[in-house]
Amino acid sequence: xxxxxxxxxxxxxxxxxxxxxxxxxxxxxxxxxxxxxxxxxxxxxxxxxxxxxxxxxxxxxxxxxxxxxxxxxxxxxxxxxxxxxxxxxxxxxxxxxxxxxxxxxxxxxxxxxxxxxxxxxxxxxxxxxxxxxxxxxxxxxxxxxxxxxxxxxxxxxxxxxxxxxxxxxxxxxxxxxxxxxxxxxxxxxxxxxxxxxxxxxxxxxxxxxxxxxxxxxxxxxxxxxxxxxxxxxxxxxxxxxxxxxxxxxx
Length: 250
Fold this sequence. Notes:
glycoprotein, Nucleotide-diphossugar_trans, transmembrane helix, transmembrane
């Protein structure tokens, strides 16, 4: 059973204060925004983290004067959670709403610290999150694993055929995505960790794919399956006060 988001009154009040359009969309009125961004989240039964994420990210993005909309792609419980496939669905469905030039794919349990970490796209795919602070202190993220938060142009996402939809559990799709970028002839980009530092929200550690470090397994799946092989059913599509909610069956 999917989360029913049991805080609608506060969410509606918060959306009114922030002057959000239905579906969690906002555009600055005092200037012409340089960036138009779709922020995509893969979701399954993490309501407290979703609430904390939205309460942090809306003011953060508005302080950067970015035109944005937040999409939460929620998987039914019929099958194992597949992050890559859900993020692909988010790209496909968001493009039906608008021709977003820039996409950001984001974990629900990490929050950016620095407003200089601009949530927009560069000429190259960018790993936005380079350092993460949790209970055990700050740690640099792996340069060869695009975990946490990623920004790239929609044209680049199509070029690399999106995320693999082959991987379940945790640890493989992030590494596969890095190799897709390289195989497409693109140069990955990372900012320094002072700019790209994040907090980690408390969360259950997902099950790790035991073959996550098997490069040969990852390399063999590059490009062949992704956006071009997506098969899913949209159960519902609704404009919530703080986000666009799309429930899918994979």
